[in-house]
Amino acid sequence: MFVNFRRINKRQCVQLMTTCLVLSLVMLCWEQLDNRVVSHVKSYSYRYLSNRFVYVNRSLTISRQQARVFSDFRYLLDHPDKCAGQDVLLLLLVKTSPENIERRNAIRSTWGNETYIQNHLGVTVKVLFVLGAPPTKEEEPSWSKRSGVGFQEHLADEDRLHGDMIQQDFLDSFHNLTLKLILQFHWTHRCCAHARFLMTADDDVFVHMPNLVSYLQDAKSKGVTDFWIGRVHRGAPPIRRKDSKYYVSFEMYQWLSYPDYTAGAGYVVSGDVADKIYQAMLTLNASLYIDDVFMGICANAVGVSPQEHIFFSGEGKAPYHQCIYDQMMTSHGHVEDIYDLWEAATSPRVKQRTSGLVGRLYCTAVKTYLLCRPYNFNTYPCKAAYS
Ligand SMILES: *[C@@H]1O[C@H](CO)[C@@H](O)[C@H](O)[C@H]1NC(C)=O
Ligand SMILES: *[C@@H]1O[C@H](CO)[C@@H](O)[C@H](O)[C@H]1NC(C)=O
Ligand SMILES: *[C@@H]1O[C@H](CO)[C@@H](O)[C@H](O)[C@H]1NC(C)=O
Ligand SMILES: *[C@@H]1O[C@H](CO)[C@@H](O)[C@H](O)[C@H]1NC(C)=O
After folding, report:
1. Which of 138, 168, 238, 384 is least crowded, fewest Cβ atoms below 10 Å from its Cβ?
2. Tell me, what's the pLDDT at 14?
């Protein structure tokens, strides 16, 4: 096309410049956008075309001897008799870090209070905190340094007071979360294999214990096996951007998609699954440090797949409302508000206000408003409004 530059007027000039600006902006963003879109498309194709992940299983299988480096850490705190001789409905293991004492105390006096659960819900639930070793002397927090005794001393004191901490001698860090996962399944196998269900949760998760207990009692009476529930991630691609917290190199994991797994913030498995996962862990290379993905790899190796439960929020946070409390199981990202939330969510008023025809209609309307708005990704899905 022939362009006569003299004939370009002011308006066209502005149009041309705007176009150039927009194009360059798009090109700047394209690489990121492109990476995300392309990696998800590839990942989904891989997930749904060849979804048994046999290659993953085969290439991560190592000898029992080699796998022992991931579990053979010395126990610094342990309670081998915690479950002995009791009919445990649920063993709840909370992943925590040495410095999170406030969070542990909040859990102990709200949803993780074993005495309360026994007295009010009539079942035995064991709640234990799982952690690694604190950093060495130079790196420990100032409050611990000032007091003159080491960080580990503080943890031992806390454990003497509450008797609910399990700790192994590996550095407690984000990149060692898979070691913490392995610790949980090894400990369960050794000390609490008869628990009907095992749950693992973050220390900033709120668990609606009465709802969870009644759900699990129901599942127990049906004799469920091969049971694994939570917020399911299907066909998730490994993140290859080096600046991401979840970056995984090709050497560590070379495929386009992870096997299905549940968000690590909180999920429940039945006792038989806990045992199978333990067995898988004995022969898998656990250097992949994203613990919930590694759980997915173990489950895949023993033929267990996760089921979605719409009231497990995964990484998301539930809206604050009575109509939500009536059905919620877990919600993520609660620290300061945990006492108030526990109070509000377990109040007898919740059941009164949400029952009956009028109560149910009202709640459907409220939940539709709270959960079905556009861009509402980070909480329960919209279909939870109609369940
Ligand atoms: C746990 O609950 C019991 C009984 O409801 C109560 O007496 C006790 O103070 C609670 N524990 C904590 C740490 O709040
Ligand atoms: C994991 O723990 C081991 C054993 O304490 C330690 O040597 C290693 O540096 C830790 N890894 C990370 C990434 O923190
Ligand atoms: C486990 O995988 C890592 C790569 O993520 C590799 O460097 C290591 O050699 C593997 N271990 C064994 C025992 O094969
Ligand atoms: C995974 O590998 C193990 C050991 O090679 C094998 O026993 C198991 O059957 C495999 N699982 C699947 C689902 O292929």
Report:
1. 138
2. 73
Split at pLDDT 50, 70, 90, the class of 29 is: low
The whole-angstrom separation of Cα 258 and Cα 260 is: 6
**Which whole number is the average pLDDT over 181-201?**
98
Instruction: List strand residue ranges (DSSP E) for 96-221, in order.
Output: 124-133, 165-171, 197-202, 205-207
pTM equals 0.89
Residues 268 and 375 in one domain: no
- Alpha-carbon distance of 270 to 307, in angstroms, equals 12
Parent domain of 367: 322-386
* Nearest Cα residue to atom 6 of ligand 4: 301
Q: Is residue 198 part of a domain?
A: yes
- In eight-state DSSP terms, residue 121 is I
- Identify whether residues 90 and 124 lie together within a single domain: yes
**Ligand 4 in contact with 279 (CB < 6 A)?**
no
Same domain (yes/no): 128, 19:
no
Last residue in a domain, options 308, 336, 358: 308
- 56 falls within a domain: no
Tell me whether residue 317 is in a domain. no
pLDDT in tens, 155-167: 999 999 999 999 9
Ligand 4 centroid, distance to 294 Cα (angstroms): 15
Q: Are residues 89 and 158 in the same domain?
A: yes
Question: Phi, psi (5° rounding) for residue 173?
Answer: -150, 165
Nearest residue (by CA) to ligand 4, atom 10, is 301
Considering every ligand atom, which ligand is closest to the CA of 54?
Answer: 4
Q: Could you tell me if 113 and 257 lie in one domain?
A: yes
Q: Give the residue carrying structure tokens 């091969």.
A: 226
Tens-digit pLDDT profile for residues 120-153: 999 999 999 999 999 876 665 665 555 556 899 9
Gyration radius (Cα) of the chain, Å: 25
Residue type, 172: D
Residues 95 and 214 in one domain: yes
- Among all chains, which residue has been given the structure tokens 């386009």? 256
Domain count, the chain: 3
In a shared domain, residues 272 and 381: no
Residue 63 beta carbon below 6 angstroms from any ligand 1 atom: no
Written as one letter, the residue type at 116 is Y
